[in-house]
Design brief:
5-stranded parallel beta sheet, globular
């Protein structure tokens, strides 16, 4: 693990770069939490963040890790910045023609089959529709709060019975530009420590 300290306007970041690793079949299928959790857990234990901000879902960091996190921390936020988290096609465009309302169900299978027979067949065999529903149910069960990047996605989550009080919309760093000039933080306020798990890049609003 490579540790770096990055200084910028308004504060500094402690950045831990984890090495690229290979995964077992059970880890890729998310049957178990991957071994990447071991170093992540140690970093979080040392850092003791007030908030865990998860900015990705992948083999490296998936719902199994969120489940493990929830046993140690209460404030977990997941930024869903791509439609693929809850859409089988990954773009929320029904049959490549019109915007989808986002309701997860049998129609998702029909949609994928209408655009790609091979992919649609795999989706049907592996029951991906059920997995998308289970992901939302699991995030709700673990009291994870979801941040999405559009009102469209916000409506989709509510339509699929995710609690509205656990969803917020933030348009990346645009909102930060407004807040910077309209709000001030009291001088005696204790600093807020955020554990950010994800790629560090400007377009992801990492500076927030």
């Amino acid at each position: 693990i490579v540790k770096q300290i990055i200084h910028c306007e308004g504060g500094s970041y402690i950045l831990h770069l984890l090495p690229a690793v290979s995964f077992t079949n059970t880890e890729i299928r998310q049957k178990v939490v991957s071994h990447t959790w071991v170093p992540i857990k140690e970093i979080l234990k040392t850092f003791q963040p007030d908030i865990i901000h998860i900015h990705t879902l992948s083999t490296f960091f998936n719902v199994r890790h969120i489940e493990a996190c929830s046993k140690e921390y209460n404030n977990i936020i997941f930024t869903s910045h791509v439609p693929g988290h809850f859409c089988l096609k990954g773009d929320m465009i029904r049959r490549n023609l019109i915007p989808c309302n986002g309701k997860i169900g049998v129609q998702c299978n029909v949609c994928v089959l209408s655009t790609d027979l091979i992919k649609g067949g795999i989706v049907l065999m592996k029951g991906y529709v059920g997995k998308k529903r289970k992901l939302l149910a699991k995030l709700n069960e673990l009291s994870v709060q979801i941040v999405c990047t559009s009102q469209w996605q916000h409506r989709q989550l509510i339509l699929n019975k995710f609690p509205e009080n656990k969803v917020a919309v933030i348009r990346q760093s645009i909102q930060a530009l407004t807040l910077r000039h309209s709000e001030t933080v009291p001088k005696n306020t204790r600093r807020l420590r955020v554990g950010y798990l994800g790629r560090l890049s400007p377009e992801k609003g990492s500076s927030l």
